Amino acid sequence: MINAKKIVRTLTGKVVSNKMDKTITVKVERKVKHPLLGKIINLSNKFHAHDEKNVINEGDVVQITEQRPISKNKSWVVTKVVSKARGL
Predict the structure, then answer these.
(1) CATH number where 35 lies
(2) How many domains does the chain contain in total?
(3) Residue range 6-18: mean pLDDT, rounded
(4) Which of 15, 20, 28, 49 is the most buried (most CB within 10 A)?
(5) Predicted structure pTM score
(6) CA dist 33 → 46, 48, 54, 58, 69 (Å)
(7) Domain containing 40: what range?
(8) Average pLDDT of every residue of the chain
């Protein structure tokens, strides 16, 4: 039997909501060249990610990794905080 290594998806994005219990919403933006016009456009997706300790706030930049489904909409887990949001 061949041991195949599983590809782990990792994304980096900004936290836009932390109002749920142990869950944050992360907005991941990417730049794509439009196929017809050739213009660079910004596309974004939102992912629900698991935050076990409830310590991540809005505005933080985090790295998330795909894992087994935790709930209906949540199959990502926060692996590390890249940068904290600036306090006002």
Answers:
(1) 2.40.50.140
(2) 1
(3) 94
(4) 49
(5) 0.86
(6) 20, 26, 37, 29, 32
(7) 10-83
(8) 94
